[in-house]
Amino acid sequence: MADLPAAVADTHALIFHALASRALGRRAAALFDACERRQALIYIPMAVMWETTLLARASRINLRRPVRDFFGDLFSNPAYHPIDLSPDQLYLADELRFTRDPFDALIVAAARTLELPLLTRDSTIAGSGAVPVVW
Amino acid sequence: MPKKAVSLTLDEDNLLWLRGRGYGRGNLSAVVDDLIAQARTGKLGAIAPARTVVGTIDVADDDPELEQADKIVQEMFASSLARPLRVRETPPAYTPGARSRRSRRRG
């Protein structure tokens, strides 16, 4: 089952991918590209979906369609999967005391639960050692 | 329920999706079993053709690399948490002292 490259995406990583932005890190971009070719798996935590929604609501990004349709498009590719928020993730997020960011804690917890690296440029997360980071 | 081994030939997209759903669960069989159970109870919808989100969104001109994104979202939480929590409780319709003779009985 684990023969494909796989990772969990942080919010900005997903947004940079959807923007086709060069701000996306080289290794993260390679994994997203592999997903577009159906050769890798990327998991999207609920916290990332909600943070994307909030950024759209605050007009920091424009999804050009309702949030439901944006994620509908994303998950129509079988390489992308939403991760349901579980009580275990919430407990783990509470135990991760390296960050006060409510979303980062949940996103890291999701990656820890799946035992997968996190696609993020966040230096606080990378420095914490809480989860392997790919960027 | 007894299990029986079968050999499957699947569409590549469907196999990829199954692998994704089964990550960390150890085997495809459990995922396929779950899906069949859902299909039998009518919980599955139709499959839509795959689409890409690449190049389909825009970002604010003043923050193309989302440097301020965390701050903006955190401020939403801060303002939400700063609001006073209003709790109204309706007093219970209970009058003390009117206990029945039965409730006072012992043994």
Provide an overview of this structure.
Chain A has 135 residues and is an alpha/beta fold. Chain A has helices at 11-19, 26-36, 46-57, 67-75, 87-95, 102-114, 123-128, and strands spanning 6-9, 41-45, 61-62, 80-83, 118-119, 133-134. Chain A has 7 helices and 6 strands; from the N terminus they run E-H-H-E-H-E-H-E-H-H-E-H-E. In chain A, strand 5, helix 7 (123-128) and strand 6 form a beta-alpha-beta unit. In chain A, helix 3 (46-57) packs antiparallel against helix 6 (102-114) and helix 5 (87-95) crosses helix 6. By secondary structure, chain B is mainly α. Chain B has a domain at 12-82. The model of chain B has no long low-confidence stretch (mean pLDDT 79). Classes of the chains: A alpha/beta (135), B mainly alpha (107). Chain A binds chain B through residues 1-2, 4, 6, 11-12, 15-21, 23, 36, 38, 41, 43, 51, 54-55, 58-65, 70, 72-74, 76-81, 101-104, 114-116, and chain B through 12-14, 16-17, 19-28, 48-60, 63-66, 68-70, 72-74, 76-77. Strand 3 of chain A pairs antiparallel with strand 1 of chain B.
Order of adjacent strands in the largest pleated sheet of chain A = 4-2-1-5-6
Main sheet record of chain B = none
Radius of gyration of chain A, in angstroms, nearest whole number: 14 Å
SS-derived structural category of chain A: alpha/beta
Low-pLDDT residue spans of chain B? none
Quaternary status = heterodimer
Query: What is the H-and-E element order of chain A?
Result: EHHEHEHEHHEHE
Distance between the termini of chain B: 51 Å
Mean pLDDT of chain B: 79
Q: Which structural category fits the helices and strands of chain B?
A: mainly alpha
Secondary-structure element string of chain B: HHEHH
Whole-number average pLDDT of chain A?
A: 94
DSSP strand tally of chain B: 1
